[in-house]
Amino acid sequence: MLHTSLSLDYVLRPSNLKENAPLLIMLHGYGSDENDLFSFANELPEELLIVSVRAPYKMQPFGNAWYAINFDAEKGKWSDNEQAKQSVELIAKFIDEVANAYNINKDSITLLGFSQGSILSYAVALTYPEKVKNIIALSGYINQDILPKNLNEHDYSNLDFYCSHGNADQVIPPDWARQTQPFLNGLHIKNTYSEFPVGHGVAPQNFYEFREWLKKRI
Fold first, then answer.
1. Which end of the chain is more exposed for a tag (fewer CB within 10 A), N or C?
2. What residues does the Phospholipase/carboxylesterase/thioesterase domain cover (predicted)?
């Protein structure tokens, strides 16, 4: 069932806990919708309250995006970073709205993003580290153009990242993803990085690995 009561549309799987449930917010990739990652929900721990969000920009003929990706002869493929920054703010606001609307544990909030949703998960966590605890970043990379300039002034001690990528990814080059771990290490942020023999997608063993990682942290 699609919920429209907050600033972004979303689908929800309730927790089996009556109160203080850990929260998992899912952010899909470019051209997809809230049902994509939500297919994982039934296989994830029952104590999680799971909210899968629809990105705000409708695409034609179907699908949604968090920000535009433009193609032209001069620039090649490029992202609309201003739109991406606006979506970072929108997601940050949405986290607060969900925390206020549902009986959740505000100290156990996880973002799970794929591709464009993963890029924004990095940016939300590195901009607002006080709002989240765990980040599962699948098939994405860190876009430094949408991060704050004063990263070294933030306290990132509560953050923990699980990052993964397909080593045959034809959409986001694996080399981009491989820069993630050194970047996070440079900020002294807890993280793990894995690669799997797939393209731009989530292999079954990738799912099982991040599920076990998450179970230990909620």
1. N
2. 18-216
Q: What phi and psi, each to the nearest 5 degrees, are found at residue 34?
A: -65, -15
pLDDT in tens, 21-73: 999 999 999 999 999 999 999 999 999 999 999 999 999 889 999 998 876 65
Close Cβ partners of 101 (under 8 Å, ≥ 6 residues apart) = 5, 6
CB 161 within 8 A of CB 135: yes
Angle made by CA atoms 196, 32, 78, in degrees to the nearest 5: 80
- The H or E element that residue 195 is part of is strand 190-196
In sequence order, what are the beta bridge partners of 77?
Answer: 71
| Six-digit token string for 169 | 């990814």
